[in-house]
Write a structure and sequence with these properties.
By secondary structure, this protein is of the alpha/beta class. The protein has 12 helices and 24 strands. Helix 1 links the parallel strand 1 and strand 2. Strands 8-7-18-19-20-17-21 form a 7-stranded mixed β-sheet, covered by helices on one side. Strands 10-2-1-14-24-23 form a 6-stranded mixed β-sheet, covered by helices on one side.
Length: 459
Amino acid sequence: MPTKPQRLRQTGRRQKVLIAGAGMSGLVAALELEHVGHEVTIIEARDRVGGRVHTQRGSDGTPIAEAGAGRIPRSHPWALDYISRMGLVLHPLYPQKLTNLAFIDGRRWPLDPGAGLAEAVALPANERALGYAGIVKTYLLDNVDRLLATGAIDTPAWPPEQLADLDRLNVPDYLAERGLSQAAIKLLTLGAFPTAISPLMLTRVLVHYDREGLSIIEGGNDSLPNAIAARLRGDILLGTPVLAVTQFADRVEVTVISDGRTMTIAADALICTIPNSVLPTITFEPLLSPARRQILAEMRYVNVAKVAFRMRSRFWEAEQLSGFAQLDTGAEIWSPQWPSNGHRGVLQLYQQGERAVAMDAMSEPDRMRWAIERIEEVFPGAERHVEECVSYSWQLDPWARGAYGIPYPGDLFRWKGRLAGQEGRIHFAGEHTSEYPAWIEGAVRSGHRAASDVNNAGG
């Protein structure tokens, strides 16, 4: 696969294309199809573009934090290409020369392989001798070398059969099977860590994960979908959820609700970027294939709730702290900072798992209280600096029903070759159909791929 997206070439007749979903995959597909002359209409259930790229702003309109996609690695070339094409500016996510923290059993530790993090838990002698960095290398990073040696990344050979042993168990069970202590497993799974995934899926992420090369977009990450949407010529119909999709020999018809009325839109092709968590609410005629219906039944979506507090000052920097922390409760604290926000700061609780579901049951004031109490444990005095607060739950969003879809152990091979592709005149896209689930990179790659397939099918 090319290291950056290639512009499409005109191959045949001009088609009328519908795109369901104005997230990153749908917007990229529309941009590429319009470039070669196709007529594109986007239908979007929400009242905004961007999907799960959603920047929450304060009362003054400036960014507070990202409710959704919050970081862009420099090792994700397709996302960076679209950011560059839109003329947007990137800033480092992590401030330089400040310390990130781990919070384990009620105590703060510098999150630095050389700072004695292995002392935070009671490790057996052999693991203590390895140290934190040695444990990470031996039990996680050595698998990266194995995966790179297969040459399967971004090729039809993914996932590689020779690494099927890494897709049998979830990460904690795999580490335990290799003899790692529960204390060490706790160290390796700090923060908002999706423990249900397999080591193979984790290794796939680690190949491109560069902690020092993570960025955010000036003005908010939703500047990217907003910029692409502004360049499109075709209609973007907001507040227009899909009810049904019907295929005929010569067209596809999509039934939607628009302005309280049910209406049907016909097109030559449909690119469907709707998350697999929402797709079962839509009626398809004929039915989707048994293979796709199996995936819809099996794919799990991660529960995520985020609560962000704008602070009058970045008081934590007086201790040379970055404001970022990984907790032993399935949570992280983030401190995104855009230069345009000046001296103010942000502390955001990013909670995954069952605790995120418990937060959903709280009232908004109780949720904010619970979140600031968790932040206070790591950054004492935070509450005194709060100016305003925003929160978001992805499982309560009816058009997401979860933050992102992930393959559980065995799913990578069971679903191989079936996540993407097309069924008749319907082409499927979205981060959940890519090798980069949960990332903007996966969304843009899938949107480009679907646009290319539609373009080629019209030749």
